[in-house]
């Protein structure tokens, strides 16, 4: 299996928790025999969608704009067996860089075809990658992923095979939570392995990777302390 991971965090490898969780997932996927490459969307120039629909009507399947989306990322996406779209939560959904990418995948759809699923716009291309969505958020409440999850499910339909969401992300690398964080990150790797071998993540693995690190009021207090110490900077 050939995996393409797209990480939209603007942070570097040392501080990005999206990167921390994503690389654990890919570690497990590689353990199961997959090859995986990560592209960082911050390194690519992606213009806004113009809303012209030329990719549907004039140049079917191709965007008329010339940038890294049309010349690099779009073909890489189509060539993968599995794509991991990894975005931090910003304001309760994916960050703008990931949204920019997603909007530019409009050429994947063909409105002239019969929808395979009720309510969906059908795919233009025969072979589409399966997709895993991955996200992290700073708050202690997993409900923070609800809008993101709904968006991905609406956009991806049957191509979506797993959703990996990790709340309390900033605590994953601090010493106080180390034994527990390691259990969580090992479960993320296990999820990567399961997606490659079984095409989905088992409920037990999902429960382990999305467990709370501590009661909500404790995490709320610790988060205030965390930021007052400037640890994340
Ligand atoms: C502009 C901005 C908006 C954010 N909005 C939220 C939010 O709505 N909910 C939340 O739980 N965390 C929010 N966060 C925190 C990030 O999700 C958290 O720091 C995460 O670790 C960032 O991912 P990264 O480390 O890979 O960049 C926000 C951070 C930024 C910079």
What does this molecule look like?
With 233 residues, the chain is an alpha/beta fold. The chain has a single domain, classed as Rossmann fold (3-Layer(aba) Sandwich). 39% of the residues lie in helices and 16% in strands. It is built from eight helices and six strands. Strands 1, 2, 3, 4, 5 and 6 form a six-stranded mixed sheet that branches. A hairpin with a 2-residue loop joins strand 3 and strand 4. Helix 6 runs antiparallel to helix 7. The N and C termini lie far apart (37 Å). The structure holds flavin mononucleotide (FMN). Flavin mononucleotide (FMN) is lined by residues 9, 11, 15-19, 88-92, 136-139, 144, 169-170.
Q: In terms of topology, how is this protein built?
A:
Blueprint: E1 2-7, H1 17-31, E2 35-40, H2 54-57, H3 68-79, E3 82-90, E4 93-94, H4 96-103, E5 130-136, H5 146-156, E6 160-166, H6 178-198, H7 203-209, H8 216-228
Parallel strand pairs: 1-2, 1-3, 3-5, 5-6
Antiparallel strand pairs: 3-4
Helix pairs in contact: 1-6, 6-7
Residues 9, 11, 15-19, 88-92, 136-139, 144, 169-170 line the site of flavin mononucleotide (FMN).
């Amino acid at each position: 299996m050939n995996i393409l991971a797209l990480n939209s965090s603007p942070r570097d490898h040392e501080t990005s928790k999206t990167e921390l969780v994503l690389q654990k997932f890919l570690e497990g996927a590689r353990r199961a025999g997959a090859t995986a490459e990560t592209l960082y969307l911050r390194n690519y120039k992606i213009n806004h969608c113009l809303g012209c629909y030329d990719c549907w009507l004039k140049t079917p399947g191709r965007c008329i704009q010339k940038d890294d989306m049309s010349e690099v990322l779009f073909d890489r996406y189509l060539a993968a067996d599995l794509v991991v779209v990894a975005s931090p939560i910003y304001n309760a959904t994916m960050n703008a860089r990931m949204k920019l990418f997603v909007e530019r995948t409009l050429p994947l759809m063909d409105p002239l075809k019969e929808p395979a699923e009720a309510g969906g716009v059908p795919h233009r291309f025969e072979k589409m990658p399966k997709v895993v969505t991955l996200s992290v958020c700073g708050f202690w409440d997993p409900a923070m992923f609800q809008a993101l999850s709904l968006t991905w499910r609406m956009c991806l339909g049957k191509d979506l095979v797993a959703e990996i969401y990790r709340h309390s992300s900033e605590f994953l690398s601090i010493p106080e939570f180390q034994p527990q964080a390691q259990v969580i990150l090992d479960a993320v790797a296990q999820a990567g392995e399961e997606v490659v071998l079984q095409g989905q993540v088992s409920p037990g693995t999902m429960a382990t990777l999305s467990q709370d690190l501590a009661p909500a009021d404790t995490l709320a207090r610790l988060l205030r302390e965390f930021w007052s110490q400037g640890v994340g900077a």
